[in-house]
Amino acid sequence: MENVLRFEHPEYLYGLLIIPLLIIIYILFRIGQRKRFERFAKLEMRDNLVPTYSTRRANFKFVVFLLIVACCILALANLQSGSKMEEVKREGIDLYIAVDVSNSMNAEDIVPSRLERSKQAINKLISDMRGDRIGVIVFADKAFVQLPITTDYSAAKMFLSTVNTSLVASQGTAIAEAINLAMKSFSDEEHSKAIIIISDGEDHENDAAVKAAQEAAKKGIRVYTIGMGLPDGAPIPEYNKYGQQTGYRKDMQGNTIITKLNESMLQQIASAGNGIYARASNSNVGLSKIYDDIQKLEKSEIEATVFTDYDDQFQWFVGFAILCLLVEVFVSSGKRAWEKKFNIFEEKA
Question: How do residues 232-251 score in pLDDT, each as one tens digit?
Fold first, then answer.
């Protein structure tokens, strides 16, 4: 069986970029050292004036130092090998979460904002999932798949972290398009399927979203909705390119725009999709309530082949780093009388 290698913490590998920087610093240091010596004497006289000096020893110690740094970084990244494959049979449902990323989702009537609170709730839901497959769709004026349906919950959290209101350039709330896209993106396998729409409901498509939910229900796909926002509404913050708030969005007459939750629209969509509606608050988004209802759906068997047994290999790098450290300590930067008989760093005549 093929052995698979991976790094448990690949982000630490960026630390290897420090090695070229150290090499440049070392070269500049040696050039400066040489120029300082030439101010007092010719370079050919160095062996007579500084008999213990050895360029080769200094270079050797620096190379050993670089090896120690590289080994420490690789040890932190933790190389792992996996060779045991196990076919895991899971039972679950297929779920697409469609997240509204229009600018109104930046409103802060739900703290810290409608969108950030939605992401926090989805992240917690992913942590609690066991066996279900999840996908993420983002939408504003257009909708697109941010994450195809998967059981890789780590990937789901990673993709979720990138969701923000700049993902879709044109503004709007294309709930109907999000529902239709989710229907197309589901696999053809016979699994229970559900869609959760998380939005403030400011849809300008009349009854298109309701019709899309009805079409989904005909295909056995349930559509749930969560209303993000409070009935009184809130202004929409505006930010500069540095992420600093510059004020609030205004209309053509200069009045501050207040975005309000369109609860009626979201209730109609959920009803048409044979799902339920939940209104978010600052204490509870309502996603867990909807997920509990989804768990009542008939679950189908999902097969997934995964590597389940990984062995840590970091100890090899730690051991080699310790060995290099001993060598670095043992070898002095200058010549020692007792080392001369070995002639390791001397040029042969």
Answer: 899 999 988 888 889 998 98
In angstroms, the CA 125 to CA 97 distance is 11
Query: pLDDT tens for residues 57-75?
Result: 788 889 999 999 999 999 9
- Report the 10 Å Cβ neighbour count for 7: 16
The domains of the chain are located at: 4-78+313-339, 87-304
Q: Contact at 8 Å (CB) between 1 and 83? A: yes
- List CB contacts of 121: < 8 A, sequence separation 6 or more: 280, 285, 287, 288
DSSP 8-state code for residue 298? P
Separation CA 59–CA 52 (nearest Å)? 15
pLDDT band at residue 338 under the 50/70/90 scheme? very low
Q: Give the pTM.
A: 0.63
Query: Per this entry, what is the length of the chain?
Result: 349
d(CA 97, CA 137): 6
In order of 214, 267, 268, 281, the CA distances from 209 in angstroms are 9, 11, 9, 24
CATH of domain 87-304: 3.40.50.410
Q: Is 263 helix (H, G, I), strand (E, B) or coil?
A: helix
b/e map of 195-213 (b: 16 or more CB within 10 Å)? bbbbbbbbbebeebbbbbb
CA pseudo-torsion sign 66, 67, 69, 73:
positive
Which pLDDT belongs to residue 349?
45
Contact 145, 181 (CB under 8 A): yes
Residue with tokens 């970029």: 17
